[in-house]
TrEMBL record, chain A:
Residues 629-656 form a coiled coil. This is CNH domain-containing protein. InterPro entries: Clathrin_H-chain/VPS_repeat, CNH_dom, Vam6/VPS39/TRAP1, VPS39/TGF_beta_rcpt-assoc_1, VPS39/TGFA1_Znf. One of its GO terms (biological process) is intracellular protein transport. Residues 23-300 form the CNH domain.
UniProtKB/TrEMBL annotation, chain B:
SUPFAM superfamilies: P-loop containing nucleoside triphosphate hydrolases (SSF52540). This is Ras-related protein Rab-20. The lineage of its organism: Eukaryota, Metazoa, Chordata, Craniata, Vertebrata. It is an enzyme of class 3 (hydrolase). It is a lipid-anchor. SMART domains: RAB, RAS, RHO. One of its GO terms (biological process) is protein transport. Belongs to the small GTPase superfamily. Rab family. Keywords: Cytoplasmic vesicle, Golgi apparatus, GTP-binding, Hydrolase, Lipoprotein, Magnesium, Membrane, Metal-binding, Nucleotide-binding, Prenylation, Protein transport, Transport. Its EC number is 3.6.5.2. Its main location: membrane. GO terms for cellular component: Golgi apparatus; phagocytic vesicle membrane.
């Protein structure tokens, strides 16, 4: 399990350095741009020029050219070399002495007049790469001297070194690194951070430097990498806190460096490479006789005792692709995201998106849909990449081509599922849910047609409930592509909806009608017929309505007529002309009747034509029922009730015309009476009711009905007429049948007793036959007397009240006569609040002056029309 | 050398301490990945960043092995909460907390809070044996008080109940009762020189969990997150005037940049 993050490339081979002199070892190296310096155990410094060569295949090699070597004259190994390129000096540690050497000539720099260029008794030193002192022409250096428990801070100039600070340490230090004011020290038994400016210190952790060589490596601003017990690489910052988890090295690490995002470490036989992002070991390279590992300006250089190598990082993208190729999605993403700061922002975003998408496809292929979806979302995947994996889902017209290089290795779904139908189904279910989620987000921008069409196809194929929701709401499904697909899966109802959405209502209707007529099979929608009726009902195109209503009416006139009766009243639906509809409905008598009922009874349209038409239709039905033998009494009664109700309640039909139609129909006497009543032929009506029908209660009801909107005089007249009819002695046949005469008289008595209040009692008394007993008329008479008494008394009270009011007004008038009433242009009228412009005023009771016209107005408006007096001409 | 990019700085730090094998890594796994998986003894330490509302909480999992003991102080530096973990089936693991681990917490924040967590409760407490998903866990949170008292009643028996594991032949160390843990909590407060009255009560800070079944795990972490919230807010405040930034400013002033010290 490894990543290929680095490649080991030889830089300076053994021959070039020492030829055949076997005892020469490399002790230290320094690299500064193309210049590579090497210190050896025989006290030489070698200077090479290192050139990077990239082969045509992209392979990197180094070619080294020896420029110079120089013996330092101390017979001891060169322990450390550090370049101060701004000063053109190399800082050299050899034989416990630090001194300066010219970078070009390798000549030792003699001491300047003012001060020494040498420090003695040094065991180790380090250069501050992040000095607080910003002077570019000096270098700050931390120095450990062999005897005292101190660290000294020196400034190195071109020709001299200057001690600027000395801090004591609790134990003898053996390794040092510095950043800003912070010294990071390996002491004999522990690591510590020491601020040389303030003297403040912070213990890090214990470490026995006798057992293992400590490592103190600055890896960034105020952050250090330390070798810890148990072979750990620990991170610590200047505050003494670890902000990254440690990496797990071997116990014998010699050197370490960071080449972000990796920690590279060297032990006796291996180079190990850990990721700082997840602490995992990513790569191991075998390396014998490893001796030095250091990084110079981002370049990691290694040396065995005899040769030098460069550890060249592979391009990040290649590493990531390697990880993806072995399906290590998490690691690939961690690596990508970890590189964020090292890559320009826009470039990073492109890379990151692509990796997320690739990661998503890997997880998709492994049926880890939740993770895949998340990565697709974060990577802003063009959904068509996904759709295109499913054969035939993208519309033929889609301009989409898969991105290159490809985001995945799958040809299509079949390739991916390898014939496993259960898998295929799971892939499809995923796409359904994914498309369903993204179709209304910006992910679908610019490809809504492709998304919706693909979704439609999946829904249809999978018999998914949401197919109808998709089509009934805003969608971008392509008609041309969807039609054959929906037909294939017998989704005719849905197809109709799609036609409708594309403003092809006629096609929709034709299709649905074929389904209702069982030409086509689609059970999606039960009650499709009713649906079509509803559809026509709210259809805004009258031509379509005329075209398809026939079919609907033929199928079921009572429901079909809803097309006409249930049309919503709104701007979007054009009003159908009722007369046209009536003409149209001519051949559908039942529907026509329902429609007229709708117009007359529900919408209460006041048009003679409709009312007469409806009445005629009712009448025709009654007549046809009457002509049946045997008559269906129940239906007949219902039909007559309807007819009667209409005749009674409507005032718009042509009564004479209807009367003509039933003139000689002796079975429809009641209806005829009603019509006579409408024509105000009350006597004829009552005659029919009393003499032909002998239906006294109907006669009474007729009086009540016929006078219902009239004044009481009319009513009285009508009731008197009825009374007369009852008492008419001259009628032929009446004297013959005494019993019948008695019947009429009884009816008259009942009428009087029941409706006494409407009669003029005096007139009635004159009309009544002499011989009638008082007892018989007792209720009538009693009520009549009481009513007359009541009326008399009420009148008396009214008189009394009027008199008293009159008196009151007289009193007011007298009072006001005594004093003047002031009227001026500044005074307002109490009624209209305007000022007075002329002296004619009227005083209200109480004396307030008002305009004469205001009073007139008020009197006109007041219900009691009281007269006001007190007119006055005073000013 | 290029600057190594700085990590997104967490707002607050929690540290898991305790002897090896008590289940620190397993607890963190259970909480972050919601499962119990095989672990290897932790090397050095590891940490996990938890997004808690708008805050980043880093939870450090330390190594219990003696070899890495020295690193403990550093991990605890600046911690807002320390989770002292023991194994309820192993008396020694509780004793180790006091003997070895308590002193490591000297570097933690002044107002650091301490939780005592007895893990592997599934080995001793039948209720912790039911595997819990998050729903049950939240229910459990509500029942928490009631359970606590029950546990006390249970452990009020003069002799500890025979452990189910020892019946099945596995020998375990002497078990730890909640009282033992609460007594240790009292001693921790004393060690820290804290008043019992003004500190968080033992009942609230002693937990029994099972990383194996998930018992009480969410409860533990979320209770602690809530408790360190004030610490987070203070950190955020201080960050606006943190000592490191001050230093930079001073340095800037010396370089002649417009500074403000
Ligand atoms: N029965 C049971 N076993 C557990 C539980 N938690 C952890 N274990 C087991 O205990 C052993 C140690 O778990 P770890 O999580 O690795 O312990 P640790 O505290 O991280 O150990 P170090 O990393 O060495 O300090 C493993 O075998 C786990 O399976 C628990 O709640 N119940
Ligand atoms: Mg662990």
């Amino acid at each position: 399990m490894s990543v290929k993050a680095f490649e080991l490339v030889p830089a300076v081979e053994r021959d070039l350095l020492m030829g055949d002199k076997a005892r020469i070892n490399i002790e230290c190296i320094e690299c500064c741009g193309k210049h590579l310096y090497m210190g050896t155990n025989d006290c030489f410094i070698h200077h090479f020029l290192l050139d990077e060569v990239t082969s045509s295949k992209g392979k990197l090699t180094y070619s080294a050219q020896k420029l110079l070597h120089k013996y330092l004259g101390l017979k001891k190994p060169v322990a450390e070399l550090r370049a101060a390129s701004a000063l053109e000096r190399l800082i050299v540690l050899c034989d416990g002495i630090v001194f300066l050497v010219d970078m070009v000539t390798l000549e030792t720099v003699p001491s300047a007049a003012g001060g020494g260029a040498k420090i003695r008794g040094v065991t180790a030193f380090c250069v501050n790469e992040n000095p607080v002192n910003g002077d570019p022409f000096c270098v700050e250096m931390g120095v450990i001297s062999s005897k005292k428990r101190t660290v000294q801070i020196y400034m190195v100039y071109e020709d001299r070194v200057q001690l600027v600070k000395e801090v004591t340490t609790p134990e003898q230090p053996c390794a040092v690194s510095v950043d800003g004011y912070f010294l990071c020290l390996a002491l004999a038994t522990q690591y510590m951070i020491l601020n040389y400016n303030t003297g403040a210190s912070q213990d890090l952790f214990p470490y026995n430097s006798e057992d293992r060589r400590p490592i103190v490596k600055r890896i960034g601003r105020e952050e250090f990498l330390l070798a810890a017990p148990g072979g750990l690489g620990m991170f610590a910052n200047a505050e003494g806190v670890s902000q990254r988890a440690p990496v797990n090295w071997s116990e014998s690490v010699i050197g370490a460096a960071v080449s972000f995002p990796y920690v590279v470490a060297l032990d006796e036989s291996f180079i190990t490479i850990h990721s700082m992002l997840d602490q995992q070991l990513k790569q191991t390279l075998s390396f014998r006789d490893g001796h030095i590992l250091q990084d110079f300006e981002g370049k990691v250089i290694l040396a065995s005792t005899k040769a030098v190598y460069v550890l060249v990082p592979l391009p990040l993208e290649r590493q990531i692709q390697d990880l993806l190729a072995s399906h290590r999605v998490e690691e690939a993403l961690i690596l990508t995201e970890g590189a964020q700061q090292n890559i320009p922002k826009d470039k990073f975003q492109i890379l990151h998106k692509r990796i997320l998408q690739q990661a998503g496809f890997i997880q998709f292929g492994q049926l880890q849909f939740l993770e895949a979806k998340e990565h697709f979302r974060k990577g802003q995947l063009d959904v068509r990449e996904l759709i295109s994996l499913y054969p035939l889902l993208l519309p033929a017209s889609s301009s989409f081509t898969r991105c290159h290089p490809p985001l995945h290795e799958f040809a299509d779904l079949n390739h991916l599922a390898q014939g496993d139908q259960e898998k295929v189904l799971r892939f499809k279910k995923f796409l359904i849910s994914y498309l369903g989620e993204v179709r209304s987000t910006e992910v679908a921008n610019g490809c809504r047609e492709d998304v919706d069409t693909a979704l439609l196809k999946l829904y249809a194929e999978q018999d998914h409930d949401s197919l109808l929701d998709l089509l009934a709401s805003d969608n971008a499904c392509l008609l041309a592509d969807s039609v054959p697909w929906l037909e294939k899966y017998h989704k005719y109802f849905a197809l109709g909806l799609l036609y409708h959405y594309n403003s092809q209502d006629s096609a929709a209707l034709q299709l649905w009608i074929r389904v209702v007529d069982a030409d086509l099979q689609d059970s999606t929608r039960s009650g499709l017929y009713e649906y079509i009726v509803d559809f026509l009902c709210s259809c805004s195109n009258p031509d379509l309505v005329w075209k398809y209503a026939d079919w609907a009416l033929a199928k079921d006139p009572t429901i079909g007529v809803h097309i006409f009766t249930k049309r919503p009243v709104s701007k979007d639906v054009t009003e159908l002309n009722p007369e046209d509809a009536i003409t149209y409905l001519g051949k559908h008598s039942q529907a026509l009747l329902l429609f007229l009922e709708h117009l007359v009874l529900e919408r209460k349209i006041k048009k003679e034509k409709f009312h007469t038409h409806l009445a005629v239709l009712y009448l025709e039905r009654v007549l046809s029922l009457l002509s049946e033998a045997p008559a269906d009494e129940e239906r007949l009664t219902r039909a007559r009730e309807r007819l009667q109700a209409l005749l009674r309640e409507s005032n718009l039909y042509r009564a004479q015309f209807l009367l003509g139609k039933m003139e000689n129909c002796e079975q429809l006497l009641l209806e005829r009476a009603t019509l006579h009543g409408k024509l105000e032929e009350n006597d004829k009506a009552l005659h029919i009711l009393v003499h032909k029908l002998k239906d006294f209660s109907s006669a009474e009801a007729f009086c009540v009905w016929a006078s219902s909107c009239r004044d009481s005089a009319y009513q009285q007249q009508l009731f008197h007429l009825l009374l007369e009819v009852y008492l008419d002695r001259n009628l032929p046949g009446k004297s013959q049948a005494a019993a019948g005469g008695g019947e009429l008289e009884m009816a008259a008595v009942d009428l009087l007793n029941r409706h006494g209040e409407v009669f003029d009692a005096v007139r009635v008394l004159r009309m009544l036959p002499e011989g009638w007993s008082l007892q018989l008329l007792r209720p009538f008479l009693g009520r009549a007397v009481r009513a007359s008494m009541h009326a008399g008394r009420t009148a008396q009270i009214a008189v009394g009240l009027a008199q008293s009011e009159n008196l009151q007004l007289l009193h007011d008038r007298l009072k006001d006569r005594k004093k003047p009433i002031f009227v001026s242009e500044k005074k307002g009228c109490h009624l209209c609040h305007n000022t007075f412009s002329e002296p004619d005023v009227v005083c209200l009771p109480g004396g307030a002056p008002v305009h004469t016209h205001c009073v007139a107005q008020r009197v006109r408006d007041s219900p009691t029309k009281r007269q006001l007096t007190n007119s006055s001409n005073h000013t | 050398m290029p600057e190594v990019s700085k990590m997104k700085k967490p707002d607050v730090k929690l540290v898991l301490l305790g002897d090896m094998n008590v289940g620190k890594t397993s607890l963190l796994h259970r909480y972050t990945e919601r499962k119990f998986k095989d672990t290897v003894s932790t090397v050095g330490g590891a940490f996990f960043l938890k997004q808690w509302g708008p805050y980043n909480i880093s939870i450090w999992d330390t190594a219990g092995r003696e070899q890495f003991h020295g690193l403990g102080s550093m991990y605890c530096r600046g911690a807002a909460a320390v989770i002292l973990t023991y194994d309820v089936s192993n008396w020694q693991s509780l004793a180790e907390l006091e003997e070895r681990f308590l002193s490591l917490t000297d570097t933690a924040n002044q107002d650091c809070i301490y939780a005592l967590v007895g893990n592997k409760a599934d080995l001793t407490d039948p209720r912790a044996q039911l595997s819990q998903d998050s729903d049950e866990a939240s229910k459990d949170r509500m029942d928490c008080g009631e359970e606590r008292t029950e546990t006390q009643v249970l452990s009020a028996c003069p002799t500890p109940p025979a452990s189910p594991a020892s019946l099945s032949g596995i020998t375990l160390g002497k078990q730890v009762t909640p009282e033992d843990a609460m007594a240790l909590y009292g001693r921790i407060l004393r060690y820290k020189g804290l008043e019992e009255k003004s500190s968080l009560p033992a009942e609230k800070m002693c937990f029994e969990t099972s990383a194996k079944t998930g018992y009480n795990v969410d409860n533990l972490f979320e209770a602690l997150f809530d408790l360190v919230l004030p610490s987070i807010l203070r950190n955020k405040n201080e960050n606006q005037q943190s000592p490191t930034v001050d230093l930079e400013e001073c340095r800037g002033a010396k370089r002649g940049r417009p500074g403000c010290c």
